[in-house]
Amino acid sequence: MRFSTLLFFVFLLFKGNAQVFLCKDGLIRFTSEAPLELIKAQSSKGSGALDCSNKNVMFMINIDSFDGFNSSLQKEHFRENYMETTKFPTATFKGKIIEDADFTKSGTYNVRAKGIFTIHGVEKEKIVKVKITVKDKSIEVETNFEVALEDHNINIPKVVNQKIASMISVEMKGVLKPKS
Fold this sequence. Notes:
Blueprint: H1 3-13, E1 20-33, E2 38-51, E3 56-62, E4 67-68, H2 72-82, E5 90-97, E6 107-119, E7 122-135, E8 138-148, E9 167-178
Antiparallel strand pairs: 1-2, 1-9, 2-3, 2-4, 3-5, 5-6, 6-7, 7-8, 8-9
């Protein structure tokens, strides 16, 4: 899904004259720390939107945009065998900030967002802690959470189960700017 597609969804989800903030270059990292191997990858192509009036939030990433890995073969296996990116090209989070934050005042707010996290075609309700910093007409967001592979039907063959963790750590940072 491209940024233009995200904008279409933003218009469907965030109707009215609300103050909407957008991000198209969010940094998303993941780490798999297994007994025999440490795997890290990242992408700076995360897209997101926040409607300040109703606290609706949405973020997405194209799985093929991740780079890093320990080898090109590992990257290929990640895309083709485990994430099956031809069938499931994106990961998304669509939800709502469930605690108070004043998006009109500079400051830092530690809140939670509750929503549906979808990866590998499987939707799971998730509550994530989010650090929001409002400053200079922008909103910075930071979060980290874990994803259990079995919760999303991501199967790891027994032959490599000591090289790929069953629980993946995810970190996301982004700066959202007012929609013009």
